[in-house]
What does this fold into?
Amino acid sequence: MTLLGLVLFAIFIYIETRAKSPLISLRLFRIKMFTLSSFSYFFQYMANNAILFLLIMYLQGVRGGLNPFYASIWLVPGYLLGSIAATLGGRLADKSDARVIASIGLTLQAVATYCMTRY
It folds into this structure.
């Protein structure tokens, strides 16, 4: 499956480099800040989804056998808080150094994840 993903990714790159109007200009990746931010977001996204998957399984199994609907309802406050924080963080990043705001956000997310593992 990984090999198939890599082949499809290579085909995507090939098509994008020759397209008249590409989905994303690959020249953007020459900008160090864009590239590092993209990788940072990718790894944050992967870690967050892995944790949410495990949390849903925990709520359905170990926590008392909640059904999938009620296990998902337990996650709604986190999504709402994340939406509010993202909106405020985006506005703050427009007015000050975005790197600092993003670093603070990722640190807070790491602390929240640690707290979830303790209780």
The radius of gyration is 19 Å. The helical segments are 2-18, 32-60, 68-73, 76-95, 98-118.
